[in-house]
Design goal:
By secondary structure, this protein is mostly helical. The protein contains 15 helices and two strands. Strand 1 and strand 2 form a beta hairpin.
């Protein structure tokens, strides 16, 4: 079987369609449920055609705490992204260009650390944080920011390290000959050539910080709750308010979907450009 036959194999397209439906299916059900009334939602026969209602969104958006939850999520996600990128770029540059003991272990150990599920370290993180005595809103938010920065640093360093390795050393040597300091070399030569890598790292870092639930649940009180944690407020003694949960979930998903949709080309370009051969 030649290459052209393999590329046009209907089975490949069928597999792609099935996997796409499995990925999109839960999102579709969540969005559709958010527009259903309580009666339609608990119908014995699943309703695919129904009269949509915005009542669930009205309740969520008119909640006087929604603005605070939105601010908390944006503040934590943006600040952790900025801190991660600021440290990851310098660390990746140092690992790629400097010879020191343990360099290989740090290079690949970073990625191994990122493979640890957040749930595994949730209890130790909570035990450490509870001993600090910090309990204010901004103290708890900064605790989340520092944790998400530590959580995302390994992946960001590994990603940007690949970009640095693709930059010719001759460019740096020419800048050094002209009298540039190491930091000036990074700022004027390396950083402009790593913009696509920074974009990819920023997107993944922001999405993780925006969507994370477990650690935010452990480290935050009522005033510092983020949007994912705020969803549990609709689990009441009178029952589970599924419509409002789905409405809140749909609102949380929107930023991630928009970023992924508009930055899809940038993500692909960044990941392929940063691939290290050999």
């Amino acid at each position: 079987m030649n290459a052209s036959t393999e590329k046009s194999n209907p089975g490949h397209y069928a597999l792609i369609v099935v996997l796409s439906l499995l990925a999109i299916g839960p999102i579709y059900i969540m969005i559709m449920t958010s527009f259903k009334s309580q009666v339609d939602m608990f119908s014995r026969v699943p309703l695919w055609l129904f009269v949509p209602t915005l009542d669930n969104y009205a309740v969520v958006l008119t909640d006087n705490k929604f603005d605070r939850y939105m601010f908390n999520s944006l503040f934590v996600a943006l600040m952790s992204t900025l801190l991660t990128l600021a440290m990851a770029g310098l660390a990746a540059y140092a690992i790629a260009r400097r010879e020191f003991w343990g360099r290989g272990f740090i290079t690949y150990g970073n990625l191994m650390v990122r493979m640890v599920p957040p749930a595994v370290i949730a209890v130790p993180v909570f035990a450490i944080w509870s001993r600090t005595g910090f309990s204010g809103q901004f103290e708890e938010l900064w605790g989340l920011i520092f944790f998400y920065t530590a959580l995302n640093l390994p992946f960001a360093i590994w990603l940007l390290f690949s970009f640095v390795k693709q930059i010719p050393v001759d460019l740096e040597e020419a800048a050094i000959v002209d009298g540039a300091t190491p930091f000036q070399v990074f700022r004027l030569v390396i950083f402009p050539l790593m913009k696509s890598g920074y974009a990819v790292a920023a997107i993944f870092t922001f999405r993780i910080a925006w969507n994370e639930f477990l650690i935010a649940l452990f480290l935050t009180g009522r005033q510092a709750r983020t949007l994912p944690v705020a969803i549990q407020g609709y689990l009441t003694d009178e029952g589970v308010e599924w419509g409002r949960i789905m409405a809140m979930g749909s609102l949380i998903v929107i930023p991630s979907l928009l970023i992924t949709f508009f930055a899809a080309k940038q993500i692909i370009t960044g990941l392929t450009a940063g691939a290290v051969k050999g």
